[in-house]
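Notes from the 1:1 (GR / supervisor)

We went over the backlog. Supervisor wanted to see one worked example end to end before approving the batch request, so GR pasted a single chain during the call. The sequence is below; no edits were made to it. Supervisor asked that the structure be written out right there so they could see what the output format looks like.
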Amino acid sequence: MGRPQTFNANNAARTARDVFWTHGYEGASLQELEHATGLNKSSIYNTFGSKKGLFDAAVQNYLDEVVRPALAPLIAQPATPDAIVDYLNRLRHALTANPERGLRDGCLLVNSAGAPIARDKVVSGAISSYRAELHDAVAAGIRARHPAWAHDKVARASDIVTALIVSAMTMVRVDVPAAGRACDVALEVIEA
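Structure output shown during the call:
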């Protein structure tokens, strides 16, 4: 009979999330993950099955603790007319206010989309679902801001704003001002 688990798996996923977010799946060594989580290799494998299992748990933690709380005001019932503007302003601030901290590493899932791990069926599904969730939240925020806009106008603006958010999350790693400009253009699209 094995020893009882003496650690919190969600806390381990959270700390591993930050390693994966900074270094990517491929760049995160098992040694770094052990150090960050305080777990040894056998505990990681016993709890998560593999490094990939730990990554999957870290992605779920990212969605639950980072993404969904940020999107919640956009999908609230009812969403306020300022929710989408507030979201974009908060995002811009997080990306640009302090380049040494904040969202300097962009988005865990956007980063993963450009890495070999994206070929994994579970990971590619998580990335696609995240993008759809982001798009739906942006659309809800735009509808709350402009209830008189036609469905086609909301859909087009949502496509553009979602693409600009993904661009901002991508560019922040190499060009912080460009990430800020992407947020500014998204705000202009919403107010057009």
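Supervisor's comment: Residues 3 and 43 are 11 Å apart (CA to CA).
Batch request approved.
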